[in-house]
Amino acid sequence: MPSREHKVAVLYVRVSTDEQDVNNQLPDIQAYCQRQGYTIGKVYEEAGRQGDDANRPAWTALRKAAFGYRPGFDAVVAFDATRYSRDLIPFLLDVREFANHGIRLETVREGHLELDSEAGLVLTAVQGAFAQNEKRRIKARVQASVKAAKARGAQFGRKRAFDPELFIRLRSEGLSQRKRARRLGVSQPQVHHHDRVLGVLEAHYGGAA
């Protein structure tokens, strides 16, 4: 990568629901870049996309730019590691691949994510494992919430029981609430309710809105 007088960082911001605002993450990321002496380049925004979705449009575009000829930036900065991925193996592979192209993956919370040193490998792997575990905990909480609601007499679905697994999968595919409601056999307000619950859980336990 050609040397430049000023290092350039592109920003990656992601939220899991359309109700959340990607702009909430930007002030902390911009302040971090200022402390690190980075000139801020393009901002890649992802709304309504899960961290385990391998086909996120903005993330795909960012990777294409990073791995192409003369990407024009030195680092990618996000709020925390969960913004990049919630699956451990893809997360570690991404860290390695970006590094192989001379680009640093960084976060406001964890700093530089790297695998070259023993300490860096351990820290990065721990952050990736934490992100993956939080995904499982959120999923378990949604299932527990549905089970508790059923015990109180709440009805989920018209002709079939509410399927948390299908709900999470359809949500990760970025389908609208109307389309998900039709596929799940529930009302759109029910889908909206579960989106809000899951958004709160991710914001609280996942470390970013």
Features:
disordered C terminus, 2 domains, single chain, alpha/beta, 209 residues, five-stranded mixed sheet, 8 helices, Rossmann fold
Q: What does this 3D model show about the protein?
A:
The chain has 209 residues and is α/β, with parallel strands linked by helices. The protein has 2 domains: 8-128, 3-Layer(aba) Sandwich (Rossmann fold), CATH 3.40.50; 131-205. It has 8 helices and 5 strands. Strand 4 and strand 5 (111-113) form a beta hairpin.
- What overall form do the CA principal axes indicate? elongated
Total domain count? 2
**Beta-strand content:** 5-15%
Across the major sheet, the strand order is 2-1-3-4-5
Distance between the termini: 34 Å
Structural class: alpha/beta
Task: Find the CATH superfamily of the largest domain.
Answer: Resolvase, N-terminal catalytic domain
CATH architecture classification name of the largest domain: 3-Layer(aba) Sandwich
Rg computed from alpha carbons, rounded to a whole number of angstroms: 19 Å
Average pLDDT over all residues: 76
Order of helices and strands: EHEHEHHEEHHHH
- Contiguous runs where pLDDT drops below 50 for at least 5 residues: 204-209
